[in-house]
Amino acid sequence: MKATLPGIHHVTAITADGKRNVAFYTQTLGMRMVKVTVNFDDPSAYHLYYGDFLGRPGSAMTFFVWEGAGLGRVGAPQVVVTQFAIPVGALAYWQERLAEAKITATASQDRFGQSVLAFEDPDGLALELVEAPLDSLSTFEIGADSVVPVEYAIRGFYGVTLASYKPDSTRALLTEVMGFPATDETAPDRTRHKGAADYASVVDVLNQSELRHGQGSAGTVHHVAFRVPDAEQQKAWQTILQERGLGVSPVMERCYFQSIYYREPGGILFEIATDGPGFTIDEPAESLGERVCLPPWMEENRSQIEAALPPL
Q: Within 116-220, where are the H helices?
């Protein structure tokens, strides 16, 4: 069995305002709320998931809700930009849509020859929309009730941008171990890496190591997760990473997937998550995200947990 990490599974960030976060990602960006649960390590805080109709791996943007938290500081070692894919030709629609929402967005066409639209969410989290060929976006399903017409809608992730204290070591791990070879080194500020999947598989590494130190809080990314198809491959990756000298966590039960965590040599928190069982394990597809879902071991405390959570 060849262990592969074809692309990105999900990106998890932090917000200080759950209501505002829900409004932005569902009403402005048109993503579907696919799960409302709690942080399994801190059930006093929501964990919100957005994505395509089913929250397929490669589309799931998730947030820990730390109500009232101060803003973090973007820097190393972090994911400093999260990129969503949109169909080719959709950029003008998004420029107009974001302008109507009074969101400042900057368009650029000089990054590896691509059209990119950069903006921030209400917490200051750096986001980009990147045009991608539609055939690479066909995995993702847009719900009929999306507020964004399907021909313009976000189709999962395009990729992420990493700020590492040791960019050479980060690039080496991506290339030599994780199966993300460098595919373009023509930009002065970054090196592009690409996984095997034709979607949600781009990782840009900023080339400079002299970066300001980041501080995790609202408006920053907590971690990026890469995909594996099943628990068997996840176990293989545990062994591979341990043999590389990296500290790897035990398998963590996240109900909708299983996870292992490690810090790459430049300090960024990486996760490897299984593709299944997915978000329909405890809710029908048609009503995903309509109630608070708890893991089985928390159900006996549901009344106390829900009473402590602020309304969304």
A: 167-176
